[in-house]
Amino acid sequence: MSLLTSLSYSPPPSALGPSSSSSFNHHKPISDLHYSSSSYSSVRTDGRSRRRLSTRFRRSHHSAVARSTTITAAVKPEPLKIMISGAPASGKGTQCELIKEKYGLVHISAGDLLRAEVASGTENGKRAKENMEKGMLVPDEIVVMMVKERLLQPDAQENGWLLDGYPRSLSQAKALEDLHIRPDLFILLDVSEDALIERVVGRRLDPVTEKIYHLKYSPPENEEIASRLTQRFDDTEEKVKLRLQTHHRNVEAVLSVYKDLIFKVDGNAPKENVFTEIDGALSSVLEQKSGTDSASVVTGMASLETSLDS
Question: Is residue 203 annotated as a catalytic residue, yes or no?
Fold first, then answer.
């Protein structure tokens, strides 16, 4: 929990006496100090009364500090940690853009991280490409550390993160659990297989802007863009069917790890409707986190006041 606490206290005039100074004058005669009759029935000038006055003033001072802290404490909830899953072309990319725009989360795509490795021609990239071309999952040791390092970067820690398309297997999910990486919500987009194949085969990439188009559902704005569009090597019908088989084989095992966090959405619906459902779920999570953090602050301040008064 992130807690921004402002401490400010000025003792009330009744505690300071006639002087307008904020500092307590210990050399001023006790008889010249004014206290409410509810606290003291009489003022004596012997040593025991002086000690009682000093002790009760300190308690009054500490209680006021604690009350002031409770009033001025500003609570910033922990940032959202979201996972979104679905088969290839289930609409994860579109929904991630909408979520990122509204909630400011850092979008982390395991697929993009892998493709960057493939494009760079590293040894891990070559191994990843071999598996991707066969419709197989990339070895966990390649992906897990890549994802972990990205999640631990300052922007993701401060703003929250949206992990797209990962984990994809039980072993990957367990690896994240072992690293104490767990989401607040696991969004699952459910789309029919026929629709998925149609979406994948018609998908095209603009290599200049890296924007994704679809020849039927989201065509390019003009001929210039259309002329430079390319198809990803794994976006053919043959390869997407292999990927879907792998996805279906592993998704149930992944869901078993996050069964208490799953929010299932019908991905066949228009993207605006899908986002409306997701938006409502994320708003609820934020409200719960804010309520929990606020309750913790109130409890903490109450404990502070009790300890100071004792």
Answer: yes
